[in-house]
Q: What sequence folds into this?
């Protein structure tokens, strides 16, 4: 297991390792959104990734590096959905058993997907403490290797490959890249890739007002919890970890808050104008760009669309 933040070579090796199992997702553009934002936007469409989210990258990188002996006892994790699917998918790829703890209010589409990959699901109350306690009980009973959803350097390294591809596939220099932030796995990986592969590119984060822990942590210099947690962006409900936070603190320029109304509006725009299925968490980055025109105007901006796993029976619009 990695004990320090990934370096350039780690990201290159991870990308080579996971490449046979993932999509090199397209970079999309839209004249409508360029005009609306006043910037040149390049969307990294991780909603079109295997399992419908960037999480496939980190799950695969962590699990593909396990020894045969470790794989025999299986892998375990907790997740509201996308990381759960990533671990279940990656475990199936190597023939390992997957034990997944999911909140009892997880979107049905994500629960069915995890079941579809053959994972064993245990439900718990939707609090970080309940998730941790339940998964640790499973680990102690089975000997499974715990794959943390974000606070794991192998996972961070895998997530970094999304922005590495974005940087490589856009033929001009990106002034900025913006990604959503929950636990910080994607954001810290994005920040590292920008640092190593596109020096001078600033990294921003979009965060829901109803789960505003990262911005508090960013301002205070220590990991904080959100004053309240209530947002349509169900994939961003957790707080930063002791591995993700130092990377974010060092390499991220700023964190921008958006309301649920702004998230839903951006999500609907993406469905209507670009004809792509994006979940609320995946629309947070665009919502932050549209809200903060003065920051992004006239710039070349990479926007990471993190996922597209939506319960179609419960659309917010």
A:
């Amino acid at each position: 297991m990695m004990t320090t933040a990934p370096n350039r070579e780690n990201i290159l090796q991870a990308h080579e390792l996971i490449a046979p199992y993932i999509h090199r997702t397209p970079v999309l553009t839209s004249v409508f959104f360029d005009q609306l934002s006043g910037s040149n936007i390049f969307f990294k469409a991780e909603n079109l990734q295997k399992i419908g989210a960037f999480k496939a990258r980190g799950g695969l990188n962590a699990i593909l590096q396990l020894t045969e002996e470790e794989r025999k006892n299986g892998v375990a994790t907790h997740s509201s959905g996308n990381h759960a699917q990533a671990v279940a998918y990656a475990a199936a790829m190597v023939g390992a058993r997957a034990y997944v703890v999911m909140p009892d209010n997880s979107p049905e589409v994500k629960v069915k997907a995890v079941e579809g990959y053959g994972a064993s699901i245990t439900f718990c109350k939707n609090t970080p403490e309940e998730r941790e306690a339940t998964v640790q009980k499973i680990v102690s009973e089975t000997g499974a290797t715990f794959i943390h959803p974000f606070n794991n350097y192998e996972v961070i390294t895998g997530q970094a490959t999304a922005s590495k591809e974005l940087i490589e596939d856009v033929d001009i220099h990106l002034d900025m890249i913006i990604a959503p932030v929950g636990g910080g796995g994607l954001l810290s990986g994005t920040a590292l890739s920008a640092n190593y592969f596109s020096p001078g590119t600033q990294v921003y984060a979009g965060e829901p007002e109803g789960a505003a822990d990262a911005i508090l942590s960013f301002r205070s210099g220590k990991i904080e919890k959100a004053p309240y947690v209530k947002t349509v962006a169900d994939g961003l409900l957790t707080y930063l970890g002791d591995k993700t936070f130092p990377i974010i603190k060092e390499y991220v320029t700023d964190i921008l808050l958006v309301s649920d109304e702004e998230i839903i509006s951006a999500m609907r725009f993406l469905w209507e104008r670009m004809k792509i299925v994006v979940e609320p968490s995946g629309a947070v980055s665009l919502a932050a760009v549209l809200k903060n025109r003065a920051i992004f105007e006239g710039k070349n901006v990479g926007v990471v669309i993190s996922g597209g796993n939506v319960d179609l029976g419960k659309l917010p619009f």
Remarks:
- The radius of gyration is 18 Å.
- The chain has a mean pLDDT of 96.
